[in-house]
Design brief:
The protein is of the alpha/beta class. The chain has two domains: about 40 residues, no CATH class; about 210 residues, Rossmann fold, CATH 3.40.50. It is about 35% helix and about 10% strand. It has twelve helices and eight strands. The strands form three sheets. It has a four-stranded parallel sheet, with helices on one face. A two-stranded parallel ribbon has the order 3-5. Strand 6 and strand 7 form a beta hairpin. Helix 1 packs across helix 2 and helix 1 crosses helix 6. The longest helix is centred in the N-terminal third of the chain and has 20 residues.
Length: about 350
């Protein structure tokens, strides 16, 4: 009997480890649980930063339907094939199909920040556009063009990453955040949320402590993602970035523009989405001005979808208070700017 219990225990542990190790499997489990009443988790339902902190006052369901900003109308024919290499800012909560994009008849999305690899096939005789989108905390990854060319590819031959990138690819594809994933599979169920909220409220009330991955904004009105605030983190808006690194990023982006236009794309656009702290609380530290330094670089050749200047000038609420992402106002502002760029290709 003991032997049977041990075997079952080991088998379950191996299954848990396997499910937690592979990005694709974890994503599939997440999508299944999000539609299951019995296995539902609140970790992302009320915002990813709430799911890291469980502070009760930030338990607010994200509204992905309402925007105070109107989408600019487009009456142009749908003639564009649009391929997007991006992240969760353009994920399924914000974009489900071609509908929001002006003049787009075919749409495909690849989440390259999770190391998804896909083959692109620009259609000869038609208009093919590639959008490369990244949140600011990931922009420094583009100083090496292989970050994108190894994922957005023109054939299905085996991927050959440079040696320097191989360890990073393996880590982020198979072993990224494995501890957090195990915790998600074992304990992230709605029935545990009240207990987690009580613990979080107690720790904050008496010890002023919250999760290390979450930073409470100076005005206490919202949560921020700690790596974007901590100046020691490469994802931070306040981490020093030298001119040499800016030059490298710009050179890499220019290379990507040449690489993809020479292989069939009519145009390639790059869009960097500011970290919330860069727009809302730049005074927390010394902002490294990563986005404006890239966008205003005299050597930049790739066309830019500039949302940074639009964001810092708007009075609208553009980010969720309990999530790392923009809200529908922020998305709509960006969408209008992007559609202005691509509508010229649909005429």
């Amino acid at each position: 009997m003991k032997k049977t219990v041990v075997i079952i225990g080991v088998a379950l542990f191996i299954l848990l480890l396997a499910v937690s190790t592979f990005n694709g499997v974890t994503e599939a489990v997440f999508h299944y649980r999000s539609t299951s009443a019995l296995l539902k988790s609140d970790k992302y339902y009320y915002g990813d930063l709430f799911g890291l902190s469980y502070l009760p006052r930030f338990k607010i369901k994200a509204d992905f339907a309402t925007a105070n900003i109107d989408r600019e109308k487009c009456g142009l024919p749908r003639t564009i094939n649009l391929f997007v290499a991006g992240d969760s800012y353009l994920g399924e909560h914000f974009v489900k199909d071609r509908t929001p994009f002006c003049g787009v008849k075919k749409y495909r999305f690849l989440r390259v920040n999770l190391n998804e690899v896909g083959v692109v096939e620009p259609v000869k005789g038609e208009t093919n556009i590639l959008l490369v989108e990244a949140v600011e905390r990931d922009v420094r990854s583009f100083k090496n063009p292989d970050y994108l060319t190894a994922k957005v590819r023109f054939d299905d031959s085996p991927v050959r990453f440079p040696v320097k990138q191989l360890n990073s690819f393996v880590k982020h594809t198979f072993f990224n955040d494995i501890g957090r994933r195990i915790e998600y599979h074992l304990f992230s169920y709605s029935c545990f949320t009240p207990v987690k909220e009580l613990k979080a409220a107690f720790n904050f009330r008496f010890f002023k402590r919250i999760s290390g991955e979450v930073f409470l904004a100076p005005d206490t009105s919202r949560l921020l993602f700690s790596p974007t605030v901590d100046s020691l983190s490469p994802q931070s808006s306040f981490a020093p970035v030298g001119d040499g690194e800016i030059d490298s990023i710009v050179s890499s982006l220019n290379y990507l523009h040449r690489y993809y236009t020479e292989r069939g794309f009519d145009e390639v656009y790059f869009s960097a989405i500011p970290n919330p702290v860069s727009v809302l609380y730049p005074g927390i530290g010394t902002y490294n001005e990563l986005i404006p330094r890239i966008q205003n670089h005299p050597g930049l050749r790739i066309p830019i979808v500039n949302i940074y200047d639009r964001f810092i000038s708007t009075e609208e609420e553009i980010y969720f208070r309990n999530d790392t992402h923009w809200n529908m106002n922020g998305f709509t502002l960006w969408l209008n700017e992007f559609n202005k760029k691509i509508e010229r290709h649909a005429r």
